[in-house]
Amino acid sequence: MARKSRSDRRVDLIDAARRAIIRHGTDGVGLNHVAEEAGLTSGAVLYHYPNLGELLVDAHHAGMERFYELRLKRISGMRDPAEKLVVTIRSGLPHGPDDPDVRLLNELGGAASRNRMYALLLTTLYDRQVAMYQSILETGSALGTFTLAGDSLVIARNLVALEDAYGYRITARHPVIGPEEAAELILAYARTATGNDLKTSH
């Protein structure tokens, strides 16, 4: 069996740290928890990541990729702004109450008031998501696909806020709000905000 490279080991440790954070919480996770998840000794973890705080930040950052980098990649080949908007809305919600990436974000949000780096990560993600939505809205407006009911920045910020709010309801196991219901609620606002019925296949 081929020996793993140092970079591969670090990727494995990031995944292990994400699992440990979900299990023990951002404030409660320790080096021993990460080592246990990775199947390594604490010394082996420190060999690849001498600073546990750096590993935890990298773990949180990796969990965020899905909500910005991967969404951008998913819509990059689409030309229809309406399709882009629908796909972006749907891909920003949890798959279900146990969605690990969203649970990780919830942990990060809880610790952000006590950790400036975590707060910066969340702020950066929020700003990028707003910019992503704003770009779609303004492109749609320029093409005549959308007739915006207000400022594109305001609409974009509201879309991200709705994502966050309904995402939380899903992970909190609200009895009547699952991923599909949440998507339709956000799309209802988006239809009003864009003047488009957003009837695209998905």
Automatic annotation (TrEMBL):
The lineage of its organism: Bacteria, Bacillati, Actinomycetota, Actinomycetes, Streptosporangiales. Transmembrane segments: none annotated. Keywords: DNA-binding, Transcription, Transcription regulation. Residues 30-49 bind DNA. It comes from Planomonospora corallina. It comes from the Bacteria. Pfam families: TetR_N. The keyword Membrane does not apply. This is TetR/AcrR family transcriptional regulator.
